[in-house]
Amino acid sequence: MSLDFAVCHDLEDVTVLIVDDHPSFRASARMLLQAEGFEVIGEAEDGTSALAAAAELRPDLVLLDVQLPDMDGFEVAARLTERDGGPAVVLVSSRDGSDFGSLVGTSGARGFIPKAELSGSRIAALLG
Question: Taking the model in full, what pTM does it have?
Answer without folding.
Answer: 0.91
